[in-house]
């Protein structure tokens, strides 16, 4: 068969050349992918696709880091139950890690978060304790503390743990440096939840790529950092209450109702060049466009980050290179506003296509 044979598929693979002893060994090394149809011709816009992590989000990195650091320090004992407050992605990541390592896992989560996240954690063997949405993230956080204290469980403390940002210094940031070695990187765009991704990557970029402008985004109706209001704190940097600038928003995983301690150091060190507020609806539309125009499937938070990156690209100088983070997959948003209007039954156009040929018509049951 010749190289010009039209039946020869040019896509081939050679394998990774290694065998993995655990699913946990596949965390990290996520791809950076260029977006072409949704970017100006004279700007290079890239996304870092964190949904390639085994449990589908950037929080897999945090989960493995917190558990393994606790194992090394002796804070987590063999067979001890792990508990954490989560909006979903950290809980799914911890459920995966705990399943692989043999720890029982309990998550606390407000009812405002998409149903799929509860099911994913339970499918991985976790228990999910729901808290009233009126109590916001602070409510599920305090519930986790209560349960940990009452039962002697290990509280993961993603909002305060040094292991959170550390994993992003050691992996995410190093991957970005390697992928853009010998190339420009003018902007790095991210949002924040715990602040781990931002804090870890920004710390490294400030040192290794000081020319890179760091853009930090937050919901337009919950601009905690922009407000300048200091977060009240309790023991160990834990939040002492809801931040006064917080309002409920649709960007699941972003901006809880307090400023996490993991984020605070980077705020104090001004490890960002610009704050970029974004409306959730813009993020939803951007996520839909990524799916329909580029085949890239991300959630509302990824859509919001991408929308901010698009705004930068629209006015950027020719040759500008932009990288934005896509924290998770769109599959865990099926019951959220992201999929509003996406039906299960055929619409009129689909019915017309079906009936345009004689066979196999679906009859209503």
What does this protein look like?
The protein has 365 residues and is α/β, with parallel strands linked by helices. The protein folds into two domains: 23-52 and 165-335, Rossmann fold, CATH 3.40.50.1100; 59-155, Rossmann fold (3-Layer(aba) Sandwich). It is 37% helix and 13% strand. It contains eleven helices and ten strands. It has helices spanning 59-73, 89-101, 115-123, 136-151, 162-179, 196-208, 224-227, 261-268, 280-294, 300-315, 348-355, and strands at residues 32-35, 44-49, 82-85, 105-110, 127-131, 154-155, 187-190, 213-219, 274-278, 321-326. The strands form two sheets. The chain has a six-stranded mixed sheet with strand order 1-2-10-7-8-9, with helices on both faces. A four-stranded parallel sheet has the order 5-4-3-6, with helices on both faces. The longest helix is centred in the middle third of the chain and has 18 residues, at 162-179. The chain is globular and about 65 Å long. The model has no long low-confidence stretch (mean pLDDT 94).
């Amino acid at each position: 068969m010749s190289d010009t044979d039209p039946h020869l598929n040019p896509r081939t693979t050679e394998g990774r050349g290694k065998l993995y002893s655990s699913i946990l060994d596949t965390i990290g090394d996520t791809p950076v992918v260029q977006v072409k149809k949704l970017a100006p011709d004279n700007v290079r816009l890239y996304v870092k696709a964190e949904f390639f992590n085994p449990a589908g989000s950037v929080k897999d990195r945090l989960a493995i880091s917190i558990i393994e650091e606790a194992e090394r320090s002796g804070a987590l004992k063999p067979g001890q139950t792990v508990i954490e407050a989560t909006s979903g992605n950290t809980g799914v990541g911890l459920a995966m890690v705990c399943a692989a390592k043999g720890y029982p896992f309990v998550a606390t989560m407000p009812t405002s978060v998409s149903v799929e996240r509860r099911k994913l954690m339970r499918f991985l063997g976790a228990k999910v304790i729901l808290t009233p949405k009126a109590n916001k993230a602070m409510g599920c956080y305090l519930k986790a503390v209560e349960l940990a204290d009452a039962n002697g469980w290990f509280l993961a403390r993603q909002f305060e743990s040094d292991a959170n940002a550390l994993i992003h210094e050691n992996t995410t940031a190093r991957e970005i440096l390697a992928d853009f070695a010998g190339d420009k990187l003018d902007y790095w765009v991210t949002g924040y939840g715990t602040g781990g991704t931002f804090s870890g990557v920004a710390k490294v970029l400030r040192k290794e790529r000081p020319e890179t402008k760091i853009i930090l985004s937050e919901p337009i109706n919950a601009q905690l950092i922009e407000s300048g209001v200091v977060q009240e704190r309790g023991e160990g940097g834990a939040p002492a209450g809801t931040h006064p600038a917080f309002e409920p928003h649709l960007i699941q995983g972003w901006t809880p109702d307090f400023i996490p301690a993991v984020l605070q150091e980077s705020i104090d060190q001004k490890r960002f060049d610009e704050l970029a507020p974004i409306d959730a609806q813009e993020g939803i539309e951007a996520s839909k466009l990524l799916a329909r125009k580029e085949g890239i499937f991300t959630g509302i938070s990824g859509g919001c980050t991408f929308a901010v990156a698009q705004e930068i690209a629209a006015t950027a100088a020719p040759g500008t290179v932009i990288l934005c983070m896509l924290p998770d997959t769109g599959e865990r948003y099926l019951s959220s506003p992201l999929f509003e209007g996406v039906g299960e039954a055929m619409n009129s156009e689909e019915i017309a296509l079906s009936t345009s040929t004689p066979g196999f018509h679906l009859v209503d049951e």
